[in-house]
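Onboarding guide, step 5: your first structure request.
Type a short instruction followed by the sequence, for example:

Predict the 3D structure of this protein.
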Amino acid sequence: MSEKSNIGLIGLAVMGENLVLNMESNGFSVSVFNRTVNRVEAFLKGRGSGKKIRGSKSIAEFCAQLETPRKIMMLVKAGAAVDDLIEQILPYLDEGDIIIDGGNSYYKDTIRRTAYVEKKGFLYLGAGVSGGEEGALKGPSVMPGGSEAAWLIMKPILQKISAKTESGDPCCDWVSRDGSGHFVKMIHNGIEYGDMQMICEVYQMMKVGLKLTNRQMADHFSAWNQRELDSYLIEITSDILGYESEAGEAVVDSILDVAGQKGTGKWTAVSALDYGQPLTLIGEAVFARFLSSLKDERSKASKILSGPKVDGSKFNSAEMIDNLEKALYASKIVSYAQGYQLMDTVAKEHNWTINKGSIALMWRGGCIIRSVFLGKIKEAFDRDPSLSNLLLDPFFKKALEDAQEGWRNVIITATELGIAMPAISAALNYYDGYRTERLPANLLQAQRDYFGAHTYERIDSPRGEFFHTNWTGRGGDTAAGTYSA
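The system replies with structure tokens like these:
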């Protein structure tokens, strides 16, 4: 091993440990540190044994092991732990050294940290990393943003350890300045929430509505994975539904129906509210997890509240299975369309130059939402880089037209059966709302003007010119002076 390590990594949890092995297998020597030092020793005696990996017992020793400019990747819990670790590292850095946050940090924190570290003469990258344990080991999707000078140094390493598309392109490319990389990772995770929720809604319809067996469901998901829905999440859903323990138990059936979350989906929904973007599908996916957590209340409510008494087995047909596939595919298109709209809005707000086609390429491999479908998104933005909404692209417009009848039929059937489909329903509602030239917001704005003199615009006057009506004859001519809710 050379005298100095090419790169250092702090945080030997699942992702960190596997990324170290990934780096080493790609020809890089790595130094490692962990707050709990005995983890370092255990790793070096175990999976890291005999490899170009150095351990260290302190931050000072760790930093001294690295070649310059030092390249230090942190994989620790988002929040205060990242700030604390940065403060521990800074005293041992020289000008031009690089700190990389590879965790799930909130993008506004990364904006702040980039400015702080750069002010001290160092470089900072916020790199979203997706792919879970297997991706970290074999090649994840990496979304770097921050100090551009740091990207030029880190590019050979990050692109080499990242996943590759079928054509060999790395699933890693420059996003833009400061918090852009972590922002794109946040959008990725929000879309992931939506994809998982929609799959679960289809599963519930199959199991409770159509009375299919786990084996039948696994076969359907497996078949779908050979067509437009070809993706990692569809693939693992088939595997999960077909998995049995040694005792012949269907493990999925014994899992409590309470979903956990780490907050990145919620961040996406909150950002949508902050920036006035209708991310309805992802919002419903987050709320569905919240609803699942009310297990005791739901158990009580199930014995009190009634629903339709319909024999769902009568809907069990090849046509319904085909409709479910169409509904899932159409809703997936809407989910990405919404995610990209938020991405575009926030990028403009922060003056980030983001290549939307490149983002799709980064998600083609390694990450949780990887799918063949993403290639079509890249093609859409290659055709029209200024495309305002994916639904307007000719390919996706036709796909939605082809799926529409089956999509609507699924929602109708779910309503008849009393089966909740919040995300898939939200997708269809967004589609119908987006394609409607005149929404009932004129009445809503009249209501606001009636009770609060909030004013309104008229269809026969230029945009930006506001009016107020004295609806009751008792009010005055003074408007509220604001058009905000």
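Each response can be followed by summary notes, for example: The first helix runs from residue 14 to 25.
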